[in-house]
Design goal:
Strand content: 15-25%
CATH architecture of the largest domain: 3-Layer(aba) Sandwich
Number of strands: 12
Strand order of the largest sheet: 4-3-1-2-11-12
Shape: globular
Number of helices: 12
Helix content: 40-55%
CATH topology of the largest domain: Rossmann fold
C-alpha cells in the first residue's frame, strides 16, 4: 500500500516530509534521480525520458500512484505522460494542481469559466525549464483571469542546495528576487515553483518582504494527496515498505537527506 514520490534530487524531501507527517501510516517510496540532477537545465525530451524511467522504477516497487514532487518534471513531462504513456491502472500526479487550487481558491474539478480572483500579481520562482514551459501560466489561465504572472528562472539554486552550500543558495535567492522585483516591484503573492525552494522559504520571504504571501508546495501537496486517497483508496499500491532510492551515490545522498530531515535517512541504489 505504498505511494511513490519522485524528484530529480533532494528537493522532493519537502513533500515526503509533509506527507509522512500528515499520513504517518502510509508507506512511501522516495526516488531521487541525483545522478542526473538538476533537471531544470535539460530539454523536454531528456526530462521526459528520465521521468518515465524513474516512474517505472517506482511502479516496480509497488507504487501504483506516483507524485512528481518535481515542478520541472510536472511542467515538461506530465501532460505527455498522461496523454500517451500511463496505463489505466496507474496514476501519476503533479504538484501544480494543489498550488493553483490554493491560489485561485477553487477546486480542480470546478470546470466553470475562469474568473477574477483576489490575487492580481504573482511572482513565480522556478527552474529555467519550468519557466520556459509556461505550464504554470497555462494551467492558471484555465481557472483565473486578470492575474499578472512574472516568472524568474532561478539558475544555480538547486545545485547549491544539492551541494549543501546554503550560503551560496541564500545569495542566489536574494539575487533572483532582486531581478524579479525590477520587473514586478510589488507582487501580491510569490510561488516557490520548485520543491527544493521550501528549504529556502525564509530567505525568499525575507527578500520579498512580509507583505508578500509566499505559497510553498509541500503542505498543499500533502493535503491534496490525503483528499485524493480518500476518494480513490484503490490507488494505494501493493508495496508495504517505505524506502529511499537514488541513482546517485547513496552515502552522499543519505548525508544530505539526513541533514535536511534532521533524522537518519539511508538511501539505497535504485
Amino acid at each position: 500500500m505504498a505511494v511513490g514520490i519522485f524528484d530529480s534530487g533532494l528537493g522532493g524531501l519537502t513533500v515526503y516530509d509533509a506527507v509522512s507527517k500528515r499520513m504517518p501510516d502510509l508507506p512511501l517510496v522516495y526516488f531521487g534521480d541525483s545522478a542526473h540532477a538538476p533537471y531544470g537545465v535539460r530539454d523536454a525530451d531528456d526530462i521526459y525520458n528520465l521521468t518515465t524511467a524513474a516512474v517505472e522504477r517506482l511502479w516496480d516497487a509497488g507504487c501504483d500512484l506516483v507524485i512528481l514532487a518535481c515542478n520541472t518534471a510536472s511542467a515538461a513531462a506530465l501532460r505527455r505522460m498522461q496523454e500517451s504513456w500511463i496505463p489505466t491502472d496507474k496514476r501519476v500526479l503533479g504538484v501544480f494542481v494543489p498550488l493553483i487550487e490554493a491560489l485561485t481558491e477553487r477546486q480542480w474539478g470546478d470546470n466553470s469559466p475562469p474568473k477574477e480572483v483576489a490575487v492580481k500579481s504573482v511572482a513565480l520562482f522556478a527552474t529555467p525549464a519550468t519557466v520556459s514551459s509556461r505550464a504554470f501560466q497555462r494551467e492558471l489561465a484555465f481557472r483565473a483571469i486578470g492575474v499578472d504572472v512574472e516568472a524568474q528562472a532561478c539558475g544555480g539554486v538547486v545545485d547549491a542546495i544539492e551541494d549543501g552550500d546554503m550560503i551560496l543558495a541564500d545569495a542566489l535567492v536574494r539575487s533572483h528576487v532582486d531581478a524579479l522585483k525590477r520587473k514586478l516591484p510589488k507582487p501580491d503573492a510569490a510561488i516557490l515553483g520548485c520543491t527544493h525552494y521550501p528549504m529556502m522559504e525564509k530567505e525568499f520571504q525575507d527578500a520579498l518582504g512580509a507583505d508578500v504571501k509566499v505559497f510553498s508546495q509541500a503542505n498543499l501537496v500533502a493535503e491534496s494527496l490525503e483528499n485524493y486517497l480518500e476518494r480513490r483508496p484503490e490507488m494505494i499500491g501493493a508495496g508495504t515498505e517505505s524506502q529511499f532510492l537514488t541513482t546517485g551515490d547513496p552515502a552522499k545522498v543519505s548525508r544530505g537527506a539526513t541533514q535536511f530531515l534532521k533524522r537518519q535517512v539511508t538511501f539505497q541504489k535504485a
